[in-house]
Amino acid sequence: MVWPAVAFVVLMMVFPLVYAAWISLQDASLGTEPRFVGLDNYLNLASDPEFLNAFRVTWVLYGVALAMQLVLGTWLGIVLNGVKVARHLVRTIAITPFMMPPVVVGMMAIVLLDPSVGIVNWLLGTVGVPPLLWLASPRWVLLSVALIDTWQWAPFVGLIVLGGLQSLPASVFEAAEVDGVIGWRRFVYVTLPLLGPTLLTAAVLRSVDLLRFFDLVFIATRGGPGNASTTMNMYAYQQGFEFSRFGHASAAMLTLSIVVLCTVMVFARLRRALSY
Questions:
Q1: Contact predicate 25/41, CB 8 Å
Q2: Secondary structure (3-state) at 202
Q3: Which of 167, 207, 209, 201 is nearest to 274 (CA)?
Q4: How far apart are CA 146 and CA 61, in angstroms?
Q5: Given this model, what pLDDT does residue 144 score?
Q6: What are the pLDDT digits (tens) for 78-91?
Q7: pLDDT at position 104, please?
Q8: CB distance 135 to 113 below 8 Å
Q9: Cβ-contact 152, 76 below 8 angstroms
């Protein structure tokens, strides 16, 4: 009875991974016969300035977006936990952004952040701030993409935090109140430490998506301006589907997979250390 499920997993996961690993050891391009080159593709990645830039962009975008999503998501979870009126309606509205397809979010961002007719620059102009090239400036593009992704996925983190808050023992907070630990001190010294495993779970789930950042970048910036928002995933896409360097692209994707796996393992170890 188990064999059909095992065969499905092998067919859908193991075989593509093994095949990609084999292609990464080939000099494989469109219209040419694949030639075994060993680790040359990986060595070329290490000396390719475009890949090194994509590696840096991936980590910068990951760090900024993850930090904002954890902070705003925690705040949103606390707010939702305290809502008493129309609780289900408020929660439904709050989680709407991460239910939207990334393509829709990207198109919305292009319209809202348009330097000429976008409402964001118009609102900033009403308080005397000059218009900014949000998605067209190397200075602002990563922050813009991080803000867009945070708008979409901070509610997801908030939902996880809300579940964590509702599972915390009430006796701990009652004891803290008796001892006079209230307000921000209760959050810092009681709530936040107890939420540690929950926040690390949210960090793991968001890390997998943020390190593989592609869809929003593809729609909103195409990796531009120049290569200012070219992530590792975007770089691999360009190498494989625009330049037909399939071996090089496979090596980049496997490198990204190793980065994601190592990051998740670090968070998983931290979560086990904080579990109670």
A1: yes
A2: helix
A3: 201
A4: 6
A5: 95
A6: 999 888 887 888 88
A7: 92
A8: yes
A9: no
Residue entry with tokens 């990645």? 45
Residues 6+ positions from 168 with CB-CB distance below 8 Å: 191, 194, 195
pLDDT in tens, 211-252: 998 999 999 999 989 999 999 999 999 999 999 999 999 999
Q: Report whether 198 contacts 164 (CB < 8 A).
A: yes
Position 214 scores a pLDDT of 92
Give the C-alpha distances (Å, rounded to integers) separating 140 from 87, 113, 187: 37, 11, 33
Q: Burial of 180 by CB count in 10 Å (0-12 exposed, 13-18 middle, 19+ buried)? A: exposed
The yes-or-no verdict on residue 159 having pLDDT over 70 is yes
- pLDDT at position 203, please? 93
* Site of tokens 């496979």: 250
Q: Using CA of residue 67, residue 69, residue 75, residue 77, what is the dihedral sign?
A: negative
With a cut of 70, say whether residue 276 has pLDDT above it: no
Say if residue 173's pLDDT is above 90: no
Residue 73 neighbours by CB distance under 10 Å: 24
d(CA 258, CA 271) in angstroms, rounded, equals 20
Nearest to 79 by CA among 189, 12, 162, 187: 162
Q: Taking the CB of residue 210, how many other CB atoms lie within 10 A of it?
A: 24
DSSP sequence for 53-96: HHHHHHHHHHHHHHHHHHHHHHHHHHHHHH--SSHHHHHHHHTS
In this structure, the number of other CB atoms found within 10 A of the CB of residue 270 comes to 15
